[in-house]
Amino acid sequence: MKKIIKYVVSDILRNKIIIAYTIFLLIISFGLFVIEDVPEKSLTNMLTMNLTLIPLISIMFSTIYIYNSGEFIELLAAQPIKRKTLWFSIFISLALALSIAFFIGFGIPVLIFSANSIGITMIITGIILSVIFVSISLFTAVYIKDKTKGIGVALLLWLFFTVVFDGLVLFLLFQFLDYPLENLIVVLSMLNPVDLVRIVSLMQMDVSALMGATTAVFKKTFTGMSGSLITYGVLLLWLIIPLYFSTRKFDKKDL
Q: What is the pLDDT of residue 209?
């Protein structure tokens, strides 16, 4: 397992896309801190990048990597190694490599310019978001055999979580203005890991301008330590559930 992780991580970190992704994050992050006199304003702009670019790169790169590594995975599956161990090793490798790239490109500038609770929270949630979308990408790739369809579904999932979801919730709110929907909105917000990361970040930053419909209600309902524990707990489920089902599928899949 260690050998597989070591090989895959080193292979991914040498990938031109990951190198370009890291450099891009590094340039943008440093640039925002240099342009803005107040670090909090830079973090506000970086949060938007966190909620859109990080999920996109994580899910698309991981999905494409799984499809392109099909023969390599089949070769490893033929060796005396449990399939569950193999699949979990691939997950750890992708999650670790993307987290390293994110930390170098995003985390280092934040620690240099804004090493406070807000900055550290954004680093942690960014890594969590990267890992969650790696988990979702593995779920997509193992259930959809066709590469083109799998990549298309991964892109649609990213679009749904980052753009469409809040729009649908906002539409629901406008349609049922006369009904108390706060509890429903809180439940719905748990169905979107991007919204949950926004909630955790905004609990620290308190920037109302960036709040979506679900975020505003959730933040009003849950505050302090209880709210953080709930959101981090649900985020953990977002990581575990897709990984669990993708591992079960891969274990029984005919390669």
A: 47
